[in-house]
Design a protein that fits this description.
Blueprint lengths: L1 E7 L2 E7 L3 H21 L6 H76 L4
Antiparallel strand pairs: 1-2
Helix pairs in contact: 1-2
Length: 127
């Protein structure tokens, strides 16, 4: 467990967590920044509790918007992955078809050579 001292709105807090010190500091600085924004934009009569509630509401709003974006991106990613699988299957099918047509073409060429040979022999019978 890590213990990190944070200063939020000029007040010190000891935070205990499993994340790294740097991460906890980063989170604390973010919360302090958000609360200071509320404090600066709000009525000077706002209590610390009101600043904290409004700041938490703003942070929750950001969280939900980012979560929605993430959900939408995951959905788009899944759709693109499905489309990619379908395209890969089409490519495999086309490769198989090309292979079959190449084989068929080779067989037809062999048949043509045989018939031309037979035709040539029937025109010029051996004596």
């Amino acid at each position: 467990m890590n213990k990190v001292k944070l200063s939020i709105l000029g007040k010190d807090y000891l935070i205990v967590g499993t994340e790294s010190d740097e991460y906890i500091q980063k989170v604390g600085l973010y919360v302090d920044k958000k609360l200071k924004q509320v404090e600066e934009l709000g009525d000077s009569k706002l209590s610390t509790v009101m600043v904290a509630v409004l700041g938490a509401t703003n942070i929750a709003d950001e969280f939900f918007k980012e979560r929605d974006k993430s959900t939408n991106l995951k959905g788009r990613t899944l759709a693109l992955e499905k489309q990619l699988r379908e395209f890969n299957q089409k490519i495999k099918n086309l490769e198989n078809k090309v292979e079959r047509l190449t084989e068929e073409n080779s067989n037809l060429k062999m048949q043509l050579v045989r018939r031309e040979t037979e035709l040539g022999q029937s025109r010029n019978p051996q004596r």
